[in-house]
Amino acid sequence: MLPTEGRRRVQIEGVSPEIDGGRFPIKRTIGEKVHVEADMFCDSHDAIAGVILYRPESSEQWLETPLSPLVNDRWQGEFTVSEKGRYLYTVMGWVDHFKSWRRDMAKKLDAGQEVSVDWLIGAELVEQASKRASGNDAQQLKAWAQKLRAGEKQNSALLPDNTLAQELVALVDKYPDRELATTYEKTLQITVDREKARFSTWYEMFPRSCGEPGKHGTFSDCEARLPYIAYMGFDVLYLPPIHPIGITFRKGKNNVTKAELEDVGVPWGIGGPEGGHKAVNPKLGTLEDFRSFVSKAAEYGIEIALDLAYQCSPDHPYVKEHPQWFKHRPDGTIQYAENPPKKYQDIYPIDFETEDWQNLWEELKSVVLFWIDQGVRIFRVDNPHTKSFNFWEWMIGEIKQEYPDIIFLSESFTRPKVMYRLAKLGFTHSYTYFTWRNTQWELTEYFKELTQTEVREFFRPNLWPNTPDILPEFLQHGGQPAFKLRLALAATLGANYGIYGPAYEVCENRPLREKSEEYLDSEKYQMRDWDLDSPYSIKSWISRINHIRRDHPALQSDKGLRFHSVNNEQIIGYSKQTEDLKDLMLMVVNLDPHYTQSGWIHLSLGSLGLKPDKPYYLFDLLNDAQYTWWGEYNYVELNPHVTPAHIFVVRQ
Predict the structure, then answer these.
(1) How many CA atoms lie less than 13 Å away from 377 in the CB half-sphere?
(2) Which helix (H) or strand (E) holds 185?
(3) Which of 426, 537, 471, 542 shows the shortest CA–CA distance to 189?
């Protein structure tokens, strides 16, 4: 035990945020605040003080910000992270003898007690502070110590109302006595990402369907599609795997097990004679063509995201070169992917229990590094819950150490604890259950969990109303209004959201069969010719909402989400607001795609920064309508066939 250890009196516990006892970092983006709270107290009645210590991991110099008391020995403070990478933070507290003396001195003076010795005690404390100071501050503190020694007669004039001068208090606070300070036993971590981790708008597209009708699309064809995607307001274009596709056990249209000669195969069946995860499907073009596409997209303010699918077709080079990376059955064949009774003979899962796991890990990491070299900084990761958790923590940590601007999206629709664990391990964004949350109660409870519990510290939701794998029942039967209202929800409930298009904007709602979430003529198995100018297209609706998102900071964060009660379960109301209260957005959405719904919405005006004795004005950014509301209760009515949602900017 250190000589001072037994004399440290301040106790620190209950620090938040702290994920799993400090095992995992919290998440922030550049410019965001970290609000820290802690239980901090000591024995007896002495006053205490404390600070948050924080620093970028790359720096040796600790920065600090003060803690202030709440209630019941709970303290709080906050600081702002200003650079990408890893930050460290902890809490320090100490007994503040000067603060204790000042408090007790004021009480004694008020009671008219004899305090001549107490003035001397104060003088000693100030003089000790002067020894910790330097320059002019040290001289001022010494002067104050002399004044205090002069006793009550002189100090009465200096201390109006029997309280110490604020100048002295501020000066002593600059030089606290921390010799016996207690530092929290854990150093906690923050992963700080770039701003796009906080706010992004994704569009998924199969490159092979971008060509002329009946012809396999190329990267050049994808470039021609960029103005259309930019018009709708998307800033991330996600491509399913662009690698060579295996021939062995290739699936045909609508997932039939026997492929015809012209069938193009499933992009996730990666690998063929042309190469594997570091190669490009020659039907799409060359690696140089891909780099040109990435560069062209950047001119439109669009980043390219690639699918990272760690699995192989039977024709992948890994199968011959590294057979030890796959599970072998007793008959000598390699185990293909299964989800009984479903079989995926065209895909070989990687065996993360292989004894050659170290070489496997390095090779898989090199795949990411290869595409980073081609200009990619965003990866959507396919089914990460079917791969080793230990691998993800290592690989993501290794990559982000060198490239802190990398974003990994976890495509994992699985059990909640598994999804949350993947987020803790390092995934920047995560898919969610939003796809299947349809009612007012379901949406409210789920998003309270995501934004008002500890989950918000490590789990960044990325909301997708559809994917190539999932055509939800709600979209199958709700017509165009269903597509509109679900997009309005995704785009305003979450700061990060995406759609699989053009299926979404043209309102493709045909399932493979009844009670199935698979698309009929799914683009996973074949090329599709999409009519981008279809009269059923909601591209203008999407464009308007995405541009509203860009114009309003309140919609660019998952913070500030607040739900408001509506006396009709078919309507949901919620708001988002910036911390400075300058941007207040109110959303009202009809959850019924078939019928007009109406009701009364209740707003707690004080919590929204609105004065109850004055009117407030709502501007519907979807249709340019204007409303004047009074009080906490107001009437709303939405016809889903006209507009299923209001997106209001609120001003007073």
Answers:
(1) 17
(2) none
(3) 426
Q: Is 437 helix (H, G, I), strand (E, B) or coil?
A: coil
CA gap 559, 437 in Å, rounded: 20
Name the DSSP letter for residue 572. Answer: E
CB 85 within 8 A of CB 58: yes
- Could you give the CA distance from residue 379 to residue 307 in angstroms, rounded to a whole number? 6
- Name the H helices within 453-578: 473-477, 479-493, 539-551
Distance between CA atoms of residues 649 and 635, nearest Å: 17
Residue 515 Rama label (left phi>0; alpha psi -120 to 50; beta): left
Q: CA–CA separation, 633 vs 152, rounded Å?
A: 60
Helix H or strand E segment including 61: none
Kindly state the average pLDDT of the residues 446-468: 98
Residues designated as active site: 382, 411
Residue 439 carries which DSSP code? S
pLDDT tens profile 22-64: 999 999 999 999 999 999 999 999 999 999 999 999 999 999 9
In the predicted structure, residue 515 carries a pLDDT above the cut 70: yes
Which tokens in the block code for residue 332? 């000598």
Distance (Å, whole) CA 40 – CA 93: 7
Give the integer Cα–Cα distance in Å for 123 and 121.
Answer: 5
Contact by Cβ (8 Å): 566, 572: yes
> Rounded to the nearest 10 degrees, how much is the dihedral formed by the CA atoms of 505, 509, 515, 521?
-100
pLDDT digit string, tens, across residues 295-330: 999 999 999 999 999 999 999 999 999 999 999 999
Separation CA 75–CA 472 (nearest Å): 46
Segments in 112-252 forming alpha helices (H) = 116-132, 135-149, 152-158, 166-173, 219-231
Closest CA to 73 of 14, 8, 6: 14
- Hey, what are 470's tokens? 């999932």
Compute and round to an integer the Cα radius of gyration of the chain: 31
Residue 43 DSSP label: S
Distances (CA, A) of 624 to 182, 253, 588, 616: 58, 45, 15, 16
Q: Of 388, 308, 390, which is closest to residue 350 (Cα–Cα)?
A: 388
Phi, psi (rounded to 5 degrees) for 60: -90, -10
Residues making up the chain, counted from first to last: 652
- Is residue 466 a contact partner of residue 500, using CB atoms and an 8 Å limit? yes
Residue that has been written with the tokens 């330097």 in this structure: 134
- Read out DSSP for 364-401? HHHHHHHHHHTT--EEEEE-GGGS-HHHHHHHHHHHHH
Phi/psi zone of residue 609: left (φ > 0), alpha (ψ -120 to 50 degrees), beta?
A: left
Backbone angles phi, psi at 320, to 5 degrees: -85, -40
Distance CA 381, CA 307 (A): 6
